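Consider the following assembly input.
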Amino acid sequence: MRGLFISVVWVYFAALLIGPIAYLCVQAFGGGLTVFLNEVVRPEAVHGFWLTAEITLIVLLLNVIFGTVTAMVLARQRFWGQTFLSGLIDLPFSVSPVITGFMLILLVGPGTILGTWFGTMEMKILYALPAMILVTLFVTFPFVVRELTPILLAIGTESEEAARTLGANEWQIFLRVTLPAIRWGMIYGATLTIARAIGEFGAVLVVSGNILQLTQTATLHIYQSYVDFNYVGAYAVAAVLLAVSFLILMILELVKTRSSAVTEQSISIPMVQP
Amino acid sequence: MSRHALTALALRSAAIGYVLCLILLPLTAIGFQSFEDGLTRFLDDIQQPQAKAALILTIEAALLTTMINAVFGTLSAWVLVRYDFPGRAFLNALVDLPFAIPTLVAGIMIAAVYGATSPIGAWLLKGGIEVLYNVPGIVLAMLFVTMPFTIRALQPVLMELERDQEEAAYTLGATPWQAFRRVTVPSVLPGLLTGVFLTFVRALGEFGSVVIVAGNIPLKTQVAAVYVYGEIESYNPQGATSVSVVVLIVSFLALMLLERLTRPPDERLPVLLTRVLNAQWLVLHSNSKLKIQN
């Protein structure tokens, strides 16, 4: 029985995970390192990597700032509509990426009130960088908030109040008291944000217009190569992103062990329910 | 007003403003668009043969994925928690990988392995099983992206479920089946339900991996997300909206059902979807508790 169960689990993992990963690596490097490198340093691919890096960086910055602010508000304040706000934060988890992109088109597309307004301001949102950043912000928003809220609840407000009585101003309290306590959680949420921002495809595809060398991220470049039957190119860039995923997973493991004390606490504490 | 209160108010306004603009505004846009032309138009749209086929296929594939994931996920969680065998730590570390791998890359990997050009794909094809551009491929892609949900939802529960509880049941004269049904099942059920429902919702909306393996054949392998994408590309926002709204409603209903099923009996009225979605967050995280030494 025991042997059978273990074998079945190995087969399940091999069929779903190990096999596909190994085969992709074989395909990507099968033609030799030169072929692989040729595909990776192609101008379209390089542009894709840069655009992905640019979007990821901007999203990371905004998400950490607004995620921290939102988590502080949810954990430290009581106000009307708090439950509703808290529910909204989790929504991006359950919305299909294509629908996420489509919602933005409906909001700022041509012919809409906002779209026309941005048009008169001569700001290009759709099929340009701003829209790609907006949808990536949408899909990654829960990560930092959900990471920090339980930690903030767990550490309580005593130290912050002590600092306040000692005459520290709000900014000093945040920098000297709150931030050191939440920093590992923040790094964890930030890493999840990076992973999702690099990997986002559906939402970005819909709002970017997938314009060659202009709005084509790394994932969009893989997709384009694949539908153009340039399989070697698709496999090569996919292998690069796969390596990045492994790296991210390793960072997450590392951060988890560093912050295990805080995370352990945060898991045993149910989310805030006003 | 003190400086402290002023800061608090400013932070609150910023947080609320940001969330409303980023999340609520787009949702309102799609809500308005869907019922702009009335309910009849909406019903007409989803009755279109292509839309209807896409919705049915999506729900069927998601249900099949959920069932397979429930069985193999439970088995995997059980084996990873209870048995000690070579490679256990390796498999346990692999479980999180689908969360980190871009879904498009997942689709490309599955298409490569199970496509007609690979040895495995050719062998399956000889046996009469067409994986790529067919339902098995769609289910495989959905299984890949949802793989961690059941496993990670069950592992902490199984670890906490001390073996002595089951052993106590044996000492009291229970048969293995009775011990399983009366002791094991009730304690793992909430975790299992969470994993299962999250799998279903995730599978419903999956796009990146499915668009590669499904091949976008209308009426045959076109899932809802791919149909929505096609409608957007061909400038038919109305058709895209109606199908999107159906997918959104089914997702929310599934999550609300989960909330009802897993709510402890003594709890107050459902607090929107928050608790459920927090559960999803927990699943994403639970592995921090699961340092398995090998």
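The radius of gyration of chain B is 23 Å. Ask yourself how this observation constrains the way the partners meet.
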